[in-house]
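Record passed on here:
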Amino acid sequence: MIPLRHIRIITRHAYISSRTIAMRRQYSVKSQSLIIEEFGDPLKVVKMMDVELGDVHRKEVLLKMLAVPIHPADINTIQGSYGIKPSLPHVPGYDGVAEVLEVGSEVQGLQSGDWVIPRILSSGTCRTHMRASPENLIKIPSDMDKVSAATFALNPGTAYRMLHDFKSLREGDVVIQNGANSAVGQAVIQIAAAMGLQTINIVRDRPEINELKQYLSSLGATLVLTEEEVRSSTAIKEMTQPILALNCVSGRSGTEILRRLAFGGVMVTYGGMSRQPVTVPIGSLIFNEVSVRGFWMSRWNTKHSDKPERQHMLDELHKLVIQKKLKPPSHSLVPFEQFKKVFENTLSAEGKVGKKQILVFD
């Protein structure tokens, strides 16, 4: 991606249609970008600016963004509290799908109309257009809808890796997870179901709990319980003990699912929404020999950016999408010019009930 410091910010609005850009031009391309010049509250520090991109070089492609999901990592990055702290000014956006509009004369393997996703996360996808080097992109099939294409790599990728990399799971095995209504949680349910696994899914109580339980069950969840119900449920006692626990809440909730693990089980922590530490019961460590691991998808993607394991994972996830075994998370579509609504919803109650906020572009 082109570093922001090499881009000249202009103040007047400019709109260029996809059809116009796709033609060979003698003028520069302009884009609208979300930009932060300081870390802080997304509602205060994120601004939209017009940016001049310049002509596409012979080894570059010109992209038009189609859809960009906003993840908790995006919010934390803007706040300056994420594991990766970018230099400023910075264009946010870890994820998304784009259409290739123009291809440089020396570019091979891509053509106008292709769909691509970022190879490297935190590539600044919150903008209408961008120039990019082909080596920083992954071509994906365009036979998916744009929401599926924008969301099938990161959150489902996290679910896929946790279900494949920490325990050798066989059909009929049981996985327990908290935060089951999150985008990753919804992907875990669907991928596990496709693998023939059973899932115990823990969610926080809420007024619309019955609707949420029905929705997660429709995705393939074996059992859905609130954090209060899990402590007294007879249904969970009748199931085989889980051998894998997936924790994105931590605190008391993390301890509760850890206690449920069978001998030799593994708990993988990939989040801490409660902002509380993971507490491991001594009995689980000594007598059940459980293991406690951590997982960060950004690091896995960096290590496997050009390795066959990543392409194999994307191929498998795409196959599930086409087979209608992997649906996008419950979501809200927000026009790009209403970007503040995305941050409002993500930071509000709506963002806590499994509604993925997705920016869409004309």
Q: What stands out?
A: Confidence is low (pLDDT under 50) at residues 2-27. The longest helix spans residues 308-322.
